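Hi W., the pyridoxal-5'-phosphate complex you wanted:
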Amino acid sequence: MRTSTKLVQLGVGKDPTGAISFPVYQTSTFRHPSFGESTGYDYSRSGNPTRQVLEEGIAELEAGVKGFACASGMAALTSLLLLFQRGDHLIVTEDLYGGTFRLLDKVFLRFGLEATFIDTSDLDQVRRAMQNNTRAILLETPTNPLLKVADIAKISEICRAHNALTIVDNTFMTPYLQKPIALGADIVVYSATKFMSGHNDVVAGLVVIKDEKLAERFGFVQNSVGAVLGPQDSWLVLRGMKTLGIRLDRQNRNAGILARWLSNHAAIKRVFYPGLETHPGYRLLKEKTGGFGAMISFEVPSKSLAIKVLNSVRLISYAESLGGVETLITFPAYQTHADMDPAARERMGINDGLLRLSVGIEDADDLLADLEQALEGWEAVV
Ligand SMILES: Cc1ncc(COP(=O)(O)O)c(C=O)c1O
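Structure:
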């Protein structure tokens, strides 16, 4: 069965009542039939039917052995990092989501975890960063916000040779476009707040694990830490995922149109979108994935012009987040990546002229008209 069909059918036929929309089991605890007997559920932190349908669904979509639904993408990443211990070394994508950088830099490094931040689109840097105590690589591809593309299959091979795990944050792509486990990764993690749920109405995280033993260890952490997704939010994610296929088809198409238009606009210095043939990751994504995604970053010549664009957009919302049906624009250096060292940010290209678009499902002509009017008179501002 194709991924788009599996997505639509999530939860169908799973409830004994025959409900097409799997119900929200809004309960914290479950009554036991008698001593020593169980319905399979006892307490909702350890397991809840609505969350379980989501967890089984995502595991099947990614072809992993087990899925887990967490209270947020950061809760998922935190629980994952708790699989490691003092003295363990991780290799991490340098321009990854600023919150993940902050979690490592300000929280886990305090507990003795070590991390090297590199450009994971460069395999030589990956090889060079390997140490005797390297236990995993945590990568985003395409990256946030510079849309650099890493070769999951080749990185997984390098990691296997060093007995290290490959963990992919697949938030930008989803299983509809890219399946990291099929490409060789061991763990996939999501901010399901984004494309997965798709309507900017819920904060959630998902994890899928390939190996049974590792899944057991993660299940222990999830239950011990308790950063689980509630039943109502699990239902919202399930409901959103049903339309992931058609949403992404439209978002991909819109993003391609906007990226090409921006590339031809005199005010724009650079456009970062892996669906442009000039992008270094274009061929790899074309070969290995079902599309290029709906995230575009672009650079304008000055901070004042970036601010003018943010203040002038009308249809597009100036808001932090991504992946929903509504188009959003963000200023990474001052929002998502504000916690990064300014010098490192500047070196990577996350500068004061860089804006990031999460392209929604509106009519592309309306989006273009909005960008056009927001850029009007740009020569006077630069
Ligand atoms: C790539 C990526 N990973 C993880 C996260 C964190 O997810 P959440 O905001 O759901 O905690 C985000 C949030 O923006 C993200 O963009």
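The two ends are 52 Å apart (CA to CA).

W.
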